[in-house]
Amino acid sequence: YTTHSEKVSETVVNTYHISKEKVRVVPFGVYEQYATPERNGARKELNLDGFVILHFGMIRQYKGIPILVKAFDLLPEEVAESSTLVIAGEDWGDDPELVPAINRSKYRNRIVFQPGFVPDQHVPKYFAAADAVVLPYLRTCGSGVAHIAVANGRPVITADLPAMRECLNTYEGASFFPPGDAAALRDRLMEAYLRWVKEGPKSYSFQGPSWEEIARQYEEIISGLNVR
Q: What is the tens place of the pLDDT at every residue in 77-135?
């Protein structure tokens, strides 16, 4: 069995009573195919301006997106009016709180809600345009979205969950807040905003395993199997 983090490995062992020796951790890779330097063109094409806060990916209840909307509402008016909150991704319809939270937001005019599937060729535009990628998950085993953000060098603000700590532990652009805490998330947004005002768009580098190394680990696992 393989998992993407030590925490998930522990969960698999304890839930299914599997010997720890049978579970190997192979980390996520960075999705370089979604990386692009075309920031200005992407912002123009998506009609975005100011400090762009992005939540990307399938819209599900466990992802805690209403907490992000609440945190956005807690920003000072001058900050929120200088920012754009983008929520983009396929809506699975299992979060009844999200649309009401967006509609009653006092900064509704600064929220771009795009609940639809985003084709691969359009994915890089959102990350190129973003100044911060926010992942307010209530629970998760990992995040492909985080690894797209990392590939683009974007600051990542995420709930402090073990799997997220593990996958971003070498990424200088990561910051964390307690899961479900909108006020703490507001504080992280303010920090990112003030850094953006002072330094402009920020890009970070990531030191993680290459796809070649990940493939080698899977080859090692497969070669050790007794397949008949």
A: 999 999 999 999 999 989 999 999 999 999 999 999 999 999 999 999 999 999 999 99
What tokens does 82 get? 């200088």
| Residues in Cβ contact with 199 at an 8 Å cutoff, skipping those fewer than 6 apart | none
Dist. CA 46–CA 74, nearest whole Å = 25
Backbone angles phi, psi at 53, to 5 degrees: -105, 125
In the beta sheet, which residues pair with residue 59?
91
Cα 91 from Cα 173, distance rounded (Å): 28
Confidence of residue 227 (pLDDT cuts 50, 70, 90): low
Q: Which residue has the tokens 């075309």?
A: 38
Long-range CB contacts (< 8 A, 24+ apart) of 210-216? 210/29, 211/29, 214/26, 214/27, 214/29
Neighbours of 224 (CB within 10 A): 8
Q: Whole-model pTM above 0.85?
A: yes
Amino acid at 156: V
| Whole-number Cα distances in Å, 207 to 93, 103, 153, 157, 212 | 36, 40, 11, 18, 14
DSSP element (H, E) containing 210: none
Please state, in angstroms and as integers, the Cα–Cα distance from residue 205 to each residue in 33, 143, 154, 214, following that order. 16, 18, 9, 19
User: Could you give the CA distance from residue 43 to residue 68 in angstroms, rounded to a whole number?
Assistant: 21
Rounded to the nearest integer, the mean pLDDT of the chain is 92
CA angle, residues 96, 98, 100, in degrees to nearest 5: 85
